[in-house]
Amino acid sequence: MDKALLDAVIGIGTDLDLSGTLDRIVTAACELVGARYGALGVVGPDGKRLVRFITHGVTEEEVAAIGPTPEGHGLLGLLIEQPVPLRLEDLTAHPQSFGFPPNHPPMKRFLGVPIRTRGHVYGNLYLTEKTAGAHFTEEDEHAVTALAAAAGVVIDNARLYADTERRRRWHEVTAEITQLMLGDFDPVDALRLIARRAREVSDSRIGVVMLFHDDELVIEAIDGPEEFQQYVGERMPADLPGLADVLQGGRQAVVDDLAQLVKDSGRLVDVPEIESLGRTIVARLPAGTHVTGGLLLVAAERGAVLGVTVGTDLVRMFASQATLALDRAQAQRDQSMIAVLEDRDRIARDLHDLVIQRLFATGLQLQGIHRMVDVDVQQRIGRAVEDIDATIRDLRAAIFALHHQPGHRSLRADVQSLVAEYAESLGFRPRLTCEGPLDTAVPVTVRPQILAAIRESLSNVVRHAQASEVTVDVIVANGEVITRVADNGVGFDAGHRQSGLLNLRERAETLGGTVLVQSNQTHGTMVELRAPLG
C-alpha cells in the first residue's frame, strides 16, 4: 500500500494543469483502493454546494443519461457540512441518502474524504464499489486521506500556476490595448477588444462594457455568443442589484450567480439569455476627462468554475484601460476638430479680407459710373450692384457657417430646414436671408422661440395669405435678433388669426421682446419679432 500510495502521489503531480490534475486525482484514488467508481466534487465559494463534479468509471453517455451533475445534497452534502472522512458499508441505509436518479449505476459501499488547500476545504473525494464487492477498510481510509493531503498541495500549486499564467496573459493583452491606443483607432473597436480580451483571459462566457448616460447604463460592447449581440446599444437601469453598489462605491464585486440574483430581483425578465450566466465580476470604469464612468462585466457560464475570482484586481485594471481608451479617442477627435476649425478660420479670413472687399470695391466703381451712362445701362448696372450685394450677403453667411462646430446644433441650419419644409405647402420656396452670427450670438433659450415664430407665420401664410412670394429674414445686429416674415398676399384682417398673433406676442414677452404686425390689402402681411440677445 505504501508503494502504491507513493506512486499515486507522484502521478498526480506530473504537470500543473488544474483540470488534468483533478482528473488524475480521482483516477489515482480509485486505483489506490480498487474502487470501481469515483468522483471529485469541487465546493463553491459559498461553501454550501458543489460547482464542479469530475467522475471516473462512467462513460460520457452514462453521465448524459443520468442528467444534471449533483449540487451537494443528501449524503454528498453531509461531507460538505462535516468535512471529515466517512466510510459506509451501505450508503443507501444512511438517513441522509436521497437515493439515485434514473439510469444511475447501483452503488452500496462508500468512502468519502475531504481535500483541503491552505486550511480550507476545496472539495471531496467520493469512492464507491470496491473490487469484488469488498468493504472499504480503515487502511483504505488512511491511504485515501494521505492522497487527499498530497492532492491539496498539488491543487494549490496548480491554482497558483494558473493564477500566474492568467496575470501574465492580462498584462500581455493590456500591452496590446496600450499599443492600439498609441495610434489612430476607433473607440468602438477598442471597447470591443477590451470586452473580448477580458472574456478570454477570465475564461468567461461574455464580456460587457457599459457606459453611464443620463442615470442609465448603455451597453457599448459585448463579446460572447451571438444571441447576446442584440443587446448592444440597449439601456439598463443603474440600480440593479450587484451593479448599483459598484457604481456608488467605486469598488468591484463578485456575484456568485448572476441569473439567480436577477431572478430574485424581478428585473430584466425580458432578457432570457441571462439565465445562462453564473459567476460574474463587475468592475467600475473610473470617470475620466470625457467619460462619466461605467462598468466592465465578465460573466461565466452558470455552474462553471473559473479562475476569474483570483484575478479580480486585474478586471479593475482592464476597466481603467477602457476609460483611458475613451479619453484618448476623444483627445484625438478634439485635435482633429481644432485642425478643421483652424483651416476654416483661415478660409473665412481670406473670404472676408480678399473676396468681399474686392466685390465691395467693384460695386462702388459701378455706382460711380451710374450717372455717366444712359437709362438702359443704368438699370443693368443697378441689377449688377444688387447681385453683388446678394453675393456679399451669401459670402458672409458662408463665413458664419464656417465658424460653426460640426456636431453642435446650428440655428442657421434649423431655420433653413424649417423654411424648406414649407416649400411644398406654399408651392414655391420662400426666400431666406440670414445675417450675423446666428450660431454663436443667439442664446440657446431664444432659438426655439424664433423657430416657433417662423413656423407660426409660415403656417398663417399657407392657410390665409394666398401669396406668391414670401421672404424670411433672421438678422443679428445691434444686440438683438430680428425675425421677419413677409408675404405679398391678401393682407391681414384684424378679425382673424388672433390665436396665432397671441402666441407670437406671448413668445415675444417670454424673450423680453416685441412683435410688430403690418398689413394692408395690396401689399400683404409682415410679421416681425424682435428679441434682445441678453
Automatic annotation (TrEMBL):
Span of domain GAF: 17-165
Cellular component terms (Gene Ontology): membrane
Family matches, as InterPro entries: GAF, GAF-like_dom_sf, HATPase_C_sf, HATPase_dom, Sensor_HK_TwoCompSys, Sig_transdc_His_kin_sub3_dim/P
Gene3D superfamilies in the cross-refs: 1.20.5.1930, 3.30.450.40, Histidine kinase-like ATPase, C-terminal domain
Residue spans crossing the bilayer: none
Keywords, in A-Z order: Kinase, Transferase, Two-component regulatory system
GO MF: phosphorelay sensor kinase activity; protein dimerization activity
Domain of life: Bacteria
The protein's name: Histidine kinase
Lineage: Bacteria, Bacillati, Actinomycetota, Actinomycetes, Propionibacteriales
